Amino acid sequence: KPGVADLYWVDEEKAGGDKFAATEESSERDVWGLKSPKAGILLALEQMSEHPVGEAIAKALTSKGVVPHGIRHFESVTGRGVAATADSGRRVFAGNRRMVEEMGLAVPESLAKRADAWQEKARTVIYTGDEQHIWGIIAVSDPIKPSSQAAIQKLTRQGIEIHMLTGDNRQTAEAVAKEVGIQHTHGEMLPSDKANYIQQLQSKGRIVAMAGDGINDSQALAQADVGIAMGHGADIAMDVAKMTLTRSDLADIPTALKLSDATVSGVRQNLFWAFIYNVIGIPLAAGLLYPVNGFLLDPMIAGGAMAFSSVSVVLNSLRLRYKKLG
Fold it and tell me: Please, which residues bridge with residue 85 across strands?
């Protein structure tokens, strides 16, 4: 799960607001920040967010004893972040660089450099502030599971082309893609951008499966030929997806594909044998051989044979329980 790696607050008392005091999430000391009302406002914003990044920030601040401050008119801005009105009447926010720009705020050069350095380490950077100032930035890291790289390699060996679509900064996206071995990556995408990208692939005759777990993925999940919702994700993602995995682990996707192949194979086997069974059984039950050799199938035996055909289909389907998918 995502966790807060670094938290930097801009120190407005220093020249130009261009220097900052650092407070790492793992540190017990407080430098300007965690006892500030601004930290409480940030906590209140993220407690109302349904995004995994927001949940990680809220958890980190709560663990340090930060108390949420009152906010009203909360708004989740798709593909950007969250915003609300503080008790002071100012609009406050927590979101990505795009949200900062829409608030009409300029990012100080040193703050931008810090954000770039974090993004090169595959960290997601969240900006927080109000309509007049940027208060600080938060780096959220989501450790890549060892199984993820193995899963991507398995899918690639199966001839499946992997594309990563994310709302994260391009630097962060490229750093993650490089680490796990994904060739096609696209960052800073809005939910509609993801859906449009999938539609473009489909227009070229591609069959597209989309895996996602958040609200921002729901539009793309609905557009894909096969939408795969990751476990413990947003409810709307699971509602629109055609398949829901019980765990949030990419390793389950190759397993799900194998299970799907085995299921389709079982269905075809059942249809084939049911067809053969009925082609032979129905003429016999109808008395086809009676004019030839006087053979007539007893109705009770015919009924039993029909029931047995259903049993054979069920038994063949139950073989899936013992199929090795690993």
Answer: 72, 91
Diameter of the chain by CA atoms? 108
CA distances from 197 to 68, 70, 95, 194, 202 (A): 39, 39, 23, 5, 9
157, 219, 130, 4: CA torsion to nearest 10? -30
On whether the CB atoms of residues 80 and 99 are closer than 8 A, the answer is yes
Range name among 58-62, 225-229, 245-249 with the lowest pLDDT average: 245-249
pTM of the model: 0.70
Identity of the residue numbered 324: K
Residue 20: pLDDT band (50, 70, 90) is: very low
What confidence tens digit (pLDDT) does each residue in 69-110 have? 889 999 998 888 999 999 889 999 999 999 999 999 999 888
Average per-residue pLDDT in the chain? 84
How crowded is the C-beta side of 107, counted as CA atoms within 13 Å? 21
Nearest to 71 by CA among 55, 96, 47: 47
Rg of the chain over Cα atoms, rounded to whole angstroms, equals 28
Q: Which residues of 10-42 are buried (b: 16+ CB within 10 A; e: fewer)?
A: bbeeeeebeebebbebeeeeebbbbebebbbbb
Beta bridge partners of 82: 76, 94
HSE of 213, CA atoms in CB hemisphere, 13 A: 15
Nearest to 222 by CA among 234, 213, 210, 232: 210
Which residues lie across from 216 on neighbouring strands?
none
Nearest-angstrom CA–CA distance, 212 and 203 = 21
Query: pLDDT (tens digit, 9 = 90+) per residue, 105-129?
Result: 999 888 999 999 998 888 899 999 9
The CA-based angle 99-101-104, given to 5 degrees, is 115
Q: With b meaning 16 or more CB within 10 Å and e meaning fewer, what string describes 138-165? A: bbbbbeeeeebbebbebbeeeeeebbbb
Sequence-distant (6+) residues with CB within 8 A of 256 are 228, 243, 245
